[in-house]
Amino acid sequence: MVTFAHNHDCLTSVAVGLLSGALLLVSNSAAAQGRASESARAPSAVSRSAQADVLLHQGQALLDSDQLAAACAKFEAAEALEIAPVTLLRLGDCYQRAGRTASAWHSFLEAEAVARAKKDLEQGQLAAQRVSAIEPQLTRVLFVVPTTSRVPGLTVRLGANTVPPSAWDTAIAVDPGVQRVSASAKGYQSWSVELDATHGEGQLFRFNVPTLSPSLADGRAARGNAYRTAGVVTGSVGLAGIGAGALFGALSRNADSTSTCVKGVVQCTPSKSNSMVYTDAATVSFALGGALLATGVTLFVLAPSPDNKEQHALRVAARYASSGGRVQLEGVW
């Protein structure tokens, strides 16, 4: 009787292999899904199996004549119709001959899992042997993502495929070739490097994902909002000060009027004490209010813009006198 053992390392390899395959075979899966939807019109499971057998024979003929791309396409179509250990083994063999070692490894791992589920010990042992034979040839990528680099919304990509956080700090098998490695997050500047694994058989490529820098545009926008908010608040306080100065000015003029004396009783002269107090208060209110208003307008107009456009020139001047004050703005808009 033929038997084969399964230990913890084997189960770990199966899990990692399935994860690697999910990252590497997105395009193949999409093509397979399209073919599966077309074959869904097949009248029965028997006809599906018969179609798969035909595709297997066609694929093997193409493989024997070294037409690798066409052969792999036939095996993929057969797998979409019927997932069987023999189909997966032939697909993995085609991938391996085409130099797609990670894709082949994944197919062999899946063949082993399917054979075990169907209690096909012979095919399972053959698949396990193919897994062990190809593992030393694998090209692997390891993404090291320290805690300081894990900004909110961080996305790590290998080519067009997103690497889930569960695969960070884990060696992932990839097919040889040139791919783009990148990391991005909303509000941060993206990072990317090129991975050239054309001749990376048996190598491990390690990438330390750096801490992304905040986006310059977002930083300018935040500073601009802060400037404008401060300008509105400061300018509002300044307007209130100017209003108070106008009120004190009116009180000063009333206190200086002779109409406040009682006519026909005694000869009197208006007191200057109250008039001077109101005049001083008006002067101070106009000065402080004008300064605050000028500061608020300056902060608002000169706030940094997100697109870093050149700001218009602005000059603010404030003039005060005992009888009142004014704020003067000059510039080009």
Describe the protein.
The protein is an alpha+beta fold. The chain has three domains: 8-135, Alpha Horseshoe (Serine Threonine Protein Phosphatase 5, Tetratricopeptide repeat), CATH 1.25.40; 139-208, Sandwich (Immunoglobulin-like); 216-331, no CATH class. Helices cover 53% and strands 15% of the residues. It has nine helices and nine strands. The chain has helices at 8-24, 26-39, 45-64, 68-81, 85-97, 101-117, 121-134, 216-255, 273-301; strands at residues 139-144, 155-158, 161-163, 172-174, 178-184, 191-196, 204-208, 314-321, 324-331. The chain has a four-stranded antiparallel beta sheet, with no helix packed on it. The chain has a three-stranded mixed beta sheet with strand order 4-1-7. A hairpin with a 2-residue loop joins strand 8 and strand 9. Helix 2 packs across helix 4. Mean pLDDT is 75; it is low at 1-12, 29-33, 35-43 and 309-333.
Task: Indicate the percent of residues in helices.
Answer: 40-55%
- In terms of structural class, how would the helical and strand content be classed? alpha+beta
Measured by DSSP, the beta-strand proportion falls in 15-25%
Low-confidence stretches: 1-12, 29-33, 35-43, 309-333
* Order of the strands making up the biggest sheet: 3-2-5-6
Task: List how many beta strands DSSP finds.
Answer: 9
Quick tags:
rod-shaped, 4-stranded antiparallel beta sheet, 3-stranded mixed beta sheet, disordered C terminus, single chain, Serine Threonine Protein Phosphatase 5, Tetratricopeptide repeat, disordered N terminus, 333 residues, alpha+beta, Immunoglobulin-like, 9 helices
